[in-house]
Design a protein that fits this description.
The chain contains 15 helices and 11 strands. It has 405 residues and is an alpha+beta fold. The protein is globular, with a radius of gyration of 21 Å. The N and C termini lie far apart (57 Å). The structure holds protoporphyrin IX containing FE. Belongs to the cytochrome P450 family. It comes from Pseudonocardia halophobica.
């Protein structure tokens, strides 16, 4: 099969918008990804996305940020700061775990601190395993072994989280149908949305399980990865340009640009892959024959010198063309564009127009970076960060930091 790689910014943008290019990155990751939103195509994808999009309406995350996101971030950080050290990967996953579980519709215990901690530990373990399953194409381990571990984790996840969450929602939906409770009393999460639209979506319990597992890992892995890279880039920048970095520490809009610059340089998904269902001609002249395999090289496109001046340089103060997001293609585009963009990345402040605090949506990654820096987080001088030896991707396996007040 012919493989065509697109590495220019404009080609990738155009390819994302082609309806005849279908998802092909997760063919090997079917154990957790089969029939999930990210692999559906055409009418099936449109139906599922319409149902799930309702949860991600504009304004939802502005409300979340004001109501509880900041607290989730600082509460998760507090015990690490008190202990004087943390690993950014663990801190990132722990912060985002509760949020993605909430979006997916997985209830957590509300009892003792030990119970809550144990649930977050379990979710963290599942998210890491599901993520390994989804990106099996990049694994350097035995794929058969990874698949078996993911299947076992799915069973455990089902019993511990999914079945109790389904039972609670089905009971609520029965009461809703009987007019005993209103729309306001129903949880706003993916699981409830799928249960309510069961017949229209034509899904079964296995698909439901994989969709919830997919959400858990899609939201958490990318956010934890972005957070770790954002901190790493910021620390390096603070060494090179201490005055500029110091200004950013006290300016959330500028810190958000730091995060966008990190997303551009270290996209959590460095490539997207698609299969051509029909012949396609791109405006730049590339011909894509039917049946060919198309690699959208996001990491390269995000460093396209035609769009980004001095593309290799981490420069949060850079200027970018008006129609180009500062994160480049890090959140994808077209039909599969990341549904969690606003939750993770917030809403960019319009150039030259300061946004009031009540209007601003910074996004989880910026909130996390802001809290880390405010707590005096810096790289552990005695323990260097480690790259992930089991992935060909640009991921850290550990990133020790210490806190000084
Ligand atoms: C910094 C954080 C994040 C990054 C960099 C990121 C990146 C991406 C990218 C590149 C895609 C498209 C993949 C493709 O076209 O093949 C995507 C899709 C998706 N993301 Fe994210 N994501 C992030 C956070 C989140 C969060 C927090 C959630 C949910 C809670 C989420 C849920 C999804 C879903 C459901 C899709 C599939 C959309 C569809 O197929 O229609 N992501 N993400």
């Amino acid at each position: 099969m012919q493989t065509i790689t697109l590495a220019g910014y404009a080609d990738v943008r155009e390819a994302y918008r082609q309806h005849d290019l279908e998802q092909a990155l997760y063919d090997a990751g079917g154990v957790v990804m089969a029939d999930s939103l990210l692999v559906l195509h055409g009418a099936d994808h449109r139906r599922r996305r319409r149902v799930e999009n309702r949860l991600f309406r504009r304004g939802t995350f502005r409300y979340w940020e004001r109501a509880f996101l900041r607290d989730v971030v600082t509460d998760t950080l507090a015990p690490f700061a008190a202990a004087g050290r943390a690993d950014l990967l663990e801190l990132g996953y722990r912060t985002i775990m509760n949020l993605t579980a909430m979006v997916a519709g997985l209830d957590r215990p509300t009892g003792s601190v030990e119970e809550v901690d144990a649930a977050v530990d379990a979710l963290y373990r599942f998210a890491k395993k599901f993520s390994e399953g989804a990106t099996i194409v990049h694994t350097t381990r035995d794929p058969g072994k990874v698949r078996a571990e993911v299947a076992a984790a799915l069973e455990e996840f089902d019993a511990l989280f999914l079945q109790p969450s389904i039972a609670r929602r089905e009971a609520l939906l029965t009461r809703f149908a009987a007019g005993e409770i209103t729309e306001e009393d129903l949880p706003r999460d993916v699981l409830t949305a799928l249960l309510r639209n069961w017949d229209e979506l034509g899904i079964d319990r296995d698909v439901l399980r994989r969709e919830c597992a997919f959400y858990l890992q899609a939201g958490s892995h990318s956010t934890a990865d972005a957070f770790t890279h954002a901190a790493d880039d910021f620390f390096a920048w603070a060494k090179r340009e201490p005055a500029a970095a110091d200004k950013a520490r006290h300016d959330p809009a500028l810190l958000q640009r730091c995060v966008y610059e990190t997303l551009r340089l270290h996209p959590a998904s460095p490539v997207a892959q698609r299969r051509a269902l029909a012949p396609i001609s791109l405006r730049g002249g590339t011909e894509i024959p039917e049946g060919s395999f198309v690699v959208l090289d996001i990491a390269a496109a995000n460093r396209d010198p035609k769009v980004f001046d001095r593309p290799e340089v981490y420069d949060p103060l850079r200027e970018v063309p008006a129609d180009v997001p500062r994160w480049g293609h890090a959140f994808g585009g077209g039909m599969h564009a990341c549904i969690g963009t606003e939750l993770a990345g917030g809403v960019p402040a319009p150039e030259g127009h300061p946004v009031s605090e009540s209007e601003r949506v910074l996004g989880t990654v910026t909130l996390m970076l802001e809290a880390l820096l405010a707590a005096g987080g810096r790289p552990d001088p005695d323990a260097a960060p480690q790259r992930d030896p089991h992935s060909a991707r640009d991921h850290f396996a550990s990133y020790p930091v210490v806190f000084e007040g």
